[in-house]
Amino acid sequence: MISIQQAFLNVASEIPVSDPSVQVRLDRGYGICISHGYTMTKQEDGTWLVHRASTALLEDNSITYHVSKTGGCTCPDAVDGRARAGLCKHRLAVMLKEEMEGVV
Fold it and tell me: What is the pLDDT of residues 5-36, one digit of tens each?
């Protein structure tokens, strides 16, 4: 297993980080990987669930997105096409996690 920092460098070398929006999403994906507010769970079929815990005291703002290498992510940025090439922060977080684990 490699470090999150090395995974970040490896993934950054494979995606169009010259696009500022992709760089911002990669930074946010890194934040997901190191944050205590998110959980990432790999499913048997190879997809991932990325869950953000609620920070509100009185209401449940938690949400879970389904992420796959081929199908993208179910978040609004990926679904609405705002994330270039479907590279939303959730998908990039999964790419970082898989890079750390040595998944090809």
Answer: 999 999 999 998 888 999 999 999 999 999 88
Which phi and psi angles does 39 have, rounded to 5°? Answer: -125, 145
Q: Indicate the SS3 state at residue 19.
A: coil
Helix residue ranges per DSSP H, the chain: 4-12, 20-34, 76-79, 89-101
Within 10 angstroms of residue 3's Cβ, the number of other Cβ atoms is 9
Q: What is the Cα–Cα distance from 2 to 63, expressed in whole angstroms?
A: 28
Is pTM beyond 0.85? Reply is: yes
Helix 89-101, helix 20-34: angle, nearest 10: 60
Are 25 and 89 contacting, i.e. CB atoms less than 8 angstroms apart? yes
Instruction: Quick: pLDDT tens for 52-88.
Output: 876 666 556 678 999 997 879 999 999 999 998 889 9
Contacts of 31 (CB under 8 A, 6+ apart): 89
Residue type, 44: E
